[in-house]
Fold these 2 entries.
Entry 1:
Amino acid sequence: MLGWAAAVVAVAAGIALSPDVRAIAGGALREITVESVLVTVPVQLASTLICAAALWVLGPGVSYWGSVASRVLRDAGGNLLVIVPGLGELIGARSLVLSGGTARRALVASALDVVAETLAQIPFICLALMVLPRLGSHWDIDRSTLDWLAIGVGAGLVFAIAIWALSRRSERGLAARLLSALAAQVVAAWHEWRQRHGALPAAILLHLIAWAMGGVQVWLSARALGLPLSLVDAIILESAAYAVRAILFIVPAGVGVQEAGFVVAGSAFGLSPEQSLGLSLVLRARDVLLGVPVLLLWPVAEWRGQKAVGGPAGGG
């Protein structure tokens, strides 16, 4: 949670420096309603099930529901426990082991899943190019919007630097331990990778569908807030915001960067900075709503998993 504290401090400092940005942040918070958050939940759950199917077809050595548990934990960890980059993926792989998979298969399947999700994001991000002509015809962005862009990106970079500084001491020791533990299994893991990468196209397709469902959530939220945004425009808007996140991938969970992307891209669709920022904050609230209960139950899952496998870790 130190990571979130650093982000809050960085964003708060930026807001305090600009009256215009202060006004936008206050307006965005007033835009958000309980309904606008809740309407995203069913679609997000469906998206999670699809992402779990993508993991499952890659052969992690567990049941489909074991893959669901892994994906749920990965998303919760990645969205909320951003103090350690990649912790969500590690938690997801650990969940596969606790569900009965071997450490090697869990590692390979998790790595392939990340590859599939990244490749699926490429055509989705290409939709962001459709925003550029709109920005050209709507390039009357006021000073406050530009302030939000600068503060969002700046806060995100400050956040990334803070995360790097906090983890710098333990990074070398952790890397050494991981290399030592995995060195003997590299060849075997490579063979498993070659055997299972044939399922990659199916996983990519499933992840592409899941990415598009993120745009559906933006559309439903916009409707709940009474914003004039079509389904296609909502998908393009989200793709533009996530394109910014992908470019500045060093920022954990895209803190600040996602918000800046929404504000700038939203102007191309006639949305005010307050409305665009409100949509981004709705997605953040959704992540908290779904992620916190999962993380609170994680120790229970860890205990039950260890009890089931008879030890602290699965076999290799």
Entry 2:
Amino acid sequence: MFLLTIKLKKRIFSIFISLIVILLGISFFLYGLNTVKGFRGMGASLVGLIFTGIGLILVFSSILVIFFEERRKESS
């Protein structure tokens, strides 16, 4: 979905998808810390951290794509 929005040049949607993934990761992380104890809680927290990291990578990549597209438009 993320790559499709970048391919179709829908910048707002690509950043929106990234932010949804980050919020999902934060919610998993907090759920793992607060409600579940033991290895299940640790697993939920790790999944939350992984989702948050993926979301941050997606935000960074979408910002880079937007930057290089704008730079290419200015030079031509």
